[in-house]
Every structure is written in C-alpha cells, then in structure tokens.
Write a structure and sequence with these properties.
Length: 239
C-alpha cells in the first residue's frame, strides 16, 4: 500500500517538489446539472481559484454577477467585496447542510464551502495522501475501459473538510489517478465517480486539466448521464 502511495505521488511530480510551493492558482470553466439544481447556475461558471497548498484555505472569484470573492476554511466561509468588506459569513459551515438533498438550494457561502473543499481536495491530490492522519488501504483492483486500475481506499481525518470521510482513488499503470470515488455527504450522500482527464505538467507537477463527475451505481459502475459537474482548468500557476 505504501509502495502504491509512493508510486502515485512520484508519478505526479514527487512530494519534495510539491512542497516547494505554497499556492496554486488557475482559471475554471464549470458546468453540469449541479449548479442549476443548487440555484447557482452562473455564479462560478467562469471563475478563478487560489488554493493554499499548506493548509486548507481556498478563494474563488468573481461571484457572478458581482466582483466578490470567497474565503474558505473548514471552520468559516466569507464572501467579500474586492476591498475586503465582508458581505456574508458562515461559521461552522458544514452543519448548515443538515438534511440537505441533491435538489436543496445553496446560499453563496454554502456554495463557497462546497467549491472550496472540492478544489482543495482535487488540486492537492495525490499529495494530500501523505498528510498526517490520512489512513490508506489498497483494495482489489478494478477493470474499466479495457484497463485494470489499482485502488487506494482513503480515510480522511475529521480535520479535513472534503466530500466524505472514505474515498477511493483509481491508479493506472503509470501511477496517474484516473478515477476518484466518494459520497457527497452535504447533499444526501449521493455516490459519485470523478474522472481525471488530459493531464498537464506545470513546474514538474502533473495535474488533470479536465474533471467529469457522474453518478455512481450500486455496482460501482458510473452512469453515463447526467453529468453532475464538469470542470475545464487552464492557466495553472504555482508560487
């Protein structure tokens, strides 16, 4: 299991190289049925994201149709004007999703919470697997699309805000993550499969430039529709 974790981390650029950087910024084009279901069809369709690589902090901007930006941490989310004035805030944000389902609408701070932890998980993987408190287990391999992928079952500590405590990463023969499964706890535990596509390498770190998220059936196969979330990412920049 540790060998597989090491293989995955090295295939994406290595932990030593990743730890040279403190932030990652990028431009996002986001689409799929989720945003309409949540009552936020255009808010983050085209947005910028800034991820702190050392601690779980993320900002998205602009919150269309304003120029406002979010500041996300697991404990608190704020929506701020460009001058830093706080427009909305939400403390203990995860608790605000109690009893939410797939169709339940979100406020802007709730959207910022979801988008924040999502992009932090996505853009720090697989390096997040080396964090203290993360427990890994290699489980049976999975065959799909003519390939066999090894799988890492990951249990995250309570200190990490993410989709679900337990998640599964699928790894191809080159050590790259091809698929990522989870349950979205804040919207009724719906099961999802995220596909990582079109990898690019920036400053020696390999990241997917496209994500596609589909419902996951009880037999662990992805449903071909609907597309829950699609994300195209450009202009990655490490600092």
């Amino acid at each position: 299991m540790n060998d597989l974790r090491q293989q995955v981390i090295e295939a994406h650029g290595g932990l030593d190289r990743f730890r040279r950087f403190t932030t990652l910024t990028a431009k996002l084009h986001q689409f799929g049925i989720l945003w309409e279901l949540k009552g936020k069809p255009d808010v983050l369709t085209r947005a910028n994201v800034r991820v702190n690589l050392r601690t779980e902090e993320v900002s998205h901007w602009p919150f269309h149709p304003t120029e406002n930006r979010s500041r996300f941490t697991p404990e608190k989310v704020t929506i701020e004007r460009p001058d830093g004035t706080v427009v909305e805030s939400l403390t203990n944000p995860r608790a605000s999703f109690a009893d939410f389902q797939m169709e339940t609408h979100w406020s802007d701070p709730q959207l910022a919470y979801f988008a924040g932890y999502t992009m932090w998980t996505y853009l720090t993987s697989p390096f997040i697997l080396a964090q203290p408190g993360v427990v890994l287990e290699e489980i049976a391999p999975w065959s799909e699309a003519g390939q066999t992928w090894r799988r890492l079952r990951v249990t995250f500590p309570a200190s990490v805000a993410t989709h679900s405590t337990a998640q599964t990463f699928y790894v191809d023969a080159d050590g790259l993550i091809r698929r990522h499964d989870y349950e979205v706890e804040i919207q009724g535990n719906n099961a999802a499969a995220r596909y990582l596509m079109d990898p690019v390498t920036i400053d020696g770190i390999t990241l997917a430039s496209k994500f596609r998220v589909y419902p996951r059936a009880a037999d662990n196969t992805p449903l071909p529709e609907p597309l829950i979330v699609g994300v195209d990412i450009t202009d990655y920049h490490f600092e």
